[in-house]
User: Fold this.
Amino acid sequence: MIEVLVAVLLVIAVIAVLISCLGMLVMRDALDQLHFTAPAATIAPAAVAVAVLLEEPLSSAGIKAAIVAVLLIITTPVLSHATARAARIREHGRWKVLAHELEDEEAL
Amino acid sequence: MGIDVNSWLIAATALMLTLLPCLWVCVRHSVLSALIAFELASTITTLVLVLLAQGVHRDPFMDLALVSAVLSFAGALTFVRFLERWV
Assistant:
């Protein structure tokens, strides 16, 4: 029974990563591509960590896999924000939104 | 002395194949897209290391995944910082 659950979780992890990769290939804009790093960095590590914990509960490997999953889940959004910030600075030369930009957006 | 093929190793192989689209984006798209592909590839590599460690039943290999998770974050942040203005 545990083997089946582990296999299902691993399939979920692989599918999440596949969706991320395909999304990144299909999207043309960098900011659109950035959204597709999320499934690979949240669903996949969580599924893999649960699979390891199911096979070896409270073992060294299980705890380390859980730490890896937590690290990936925490650091990837930070990295995505930093990347989006870098994209904006490259495009506009600054991070802050100016008053006239907000007015233009409201007018739209 | 061989290692039996199990679901962990099959999943690791499948994930390694997903590195190819990342490589394609790195080579063919803009610098920013390449950085995003690099970030995704480092996440996939960390997962592959976890799967391989579990697949060959070597607990110390899991440390590699742990180090990879921390260092890939630091490395990607460094690239991001340079891409903001200087590259």
User: Anything to note?
Assistant: DSSP finds five helices and no strands in chain A. Chain A touches chain B through 47 residues (CB under 8 Å). The radius of gyration of chain A is 19 Å. Chain A has a mean pLDDT of 89.
